[in-house]
Amino acid sequence: MPGPGPLSGPAPDAAPRRRVAIVGAALSDCGRVDGPTPYALHAQAARRALADSGLDRSVIDGFASAGLGTLAPVEVAEYLGLRPAWTDSTSVGGATWEVMAAHAADAIAAGHANAVLLAYGSTARADIRARRRTANLSFGARGPLQFEAPYGHTLIAKYAMAARRHMHEYGTTLEQLASIAVQARANAAANPDAMFREPITVEDVLSGEMIADPFTKLHCCIRSDGGCAILLAAEDYVPDTAKRPVWILGAGTAVSHTSMSEWEDFTVSPAAASGRLAFGRAGLTPSDVDVAELYDAFTYMTLVTLEDLGFCPKGEGGAFAAKGRLLRDGDLPVNTDGGGLSACHPGMRGLFLLVEATRQLRGEAGPTQTLRRDGTPPEVAVASGTGGWFCSAGTVVLGRG
């Protein structure tokens, strides 16, 4: 019988996989930004991230971006004056940036790129204010969505329906969901870059304007402008960087559904799969995590992601969150900058999670910095993005260098 073919395993002289770190991270101007274009916010964030790394722009040979232009990331790369040999334009909603980070880390580890820049910028708020666009209630009515759109099944309605299912299945309460918004706002209070910093109460959340039952306005993310960028590089470049590295320890990605009729369980998100892969590849468990940055377009997203990543059993996310555990000085600090519920949410927020996680692990988060019980900065962080209406997920486990 013939032996295995040439594609059955790595070549005998295959190079070892390199370690990969985030070596630069930065925000552009965020919040209410009426002047610059989205391209300008990309450039501002990219320049700041590169300066943060201390490396020369000539090291960048990979670029990833989504959400802007007809040929993203080609148009944005041109605007930035880059001619990358490796590109990624994956677009899976809010999970895009964790998925891109996983792709970039794999490419760098395999030697297909050396330093990959991820950049994002959006003027979602300013565009509506200037009437350059309208609010996006849905993703359109083509393909599978044509069977849902005629019934008014908007984006937020899908999240609301999933939240109601969790409430029915496990007894989760409106007060528990509201407590997530309250804690996000409390975290934002210390963040000078947060768009909303005034304290709110559970009663404030419950008595607000109804958007999609059970979500009132404060259950929903804000609409802002802003951008950010991170630079990932091979371990070879780390000795030349200006800041301590934040290592990519493990990453996982997953997709679930587009049609709600194809979603088997409204109480389980694809983070259950992406988290399991990420922790497994990192050789860690949720109990090792010191700080979590989770996508929070709605309060229910935070709750179900906490469960699916393994921070608490399924069905107990409400009780877990309601005890103040998500505060910066809580048992599991979550969305330490205030998250999409209070700090900023200019569209696909996933890259902001990686920026904040990096700052936390470096001990450079300023007034939003969390500390371990021994007074030292966090050692391990997780950033988990969710896209669509729980259609996709990307989870990245990070470690302090």
Give your account of this protein's structure:
The chain has 401 residues and is an alpha/beta fold. 31% of the residues lie in helices and 17% in strands. The strands form 2 sheets. The protein has a 9-stranded mixed sheet with strand order 3-2-4-7-1-8-11-10-9. It has a two-stranded antiparallel ribbon with strand order 5-6. A hairpin with a 4-residue loop joins strand 10 and strand 11 (392-400). Helix 6 (174-188) crosses helix 9. The longest helix has 16 residues, at 38-53. It starts with 19 loop residues before the first strand and ends with a strand. Mean pLDDT is 93; it is low at 1-12.
Main features:
single chain; 401 residues; alpha/beta; 9-stranded mixed sheet; two-stranded antiparallel sheet; 12 helices; 31% helix; 17% strand; disordered N terminus; Thiolase C-terminal domain-containing protein; Thiolase-like; Thiolase_C_2; Thiolase
Question: What is the strand and helix layout of this fold?
Answer:
Blueprint lengths: L19 E8 L10 H16 L8 E3 L9 H7 L5 E3 L7 H15 L4 E8 L1 H6 L25 H16 L3 H15 L13 H5 L3 E3 L2 E2 L9 E9 L11 E10 L15 H12 L8 E4 L4 H10 L8 H6 L16 H4 L7 H13 L17 E8 L4 E9 L1
Parallel strand pairs: 2-3, 2-4, 9-10
Antiparallel strand pairs: 1-7, 1-8, 4-7, 5-6, 8-11, 10-11
Helix pairs in contact: 6-9
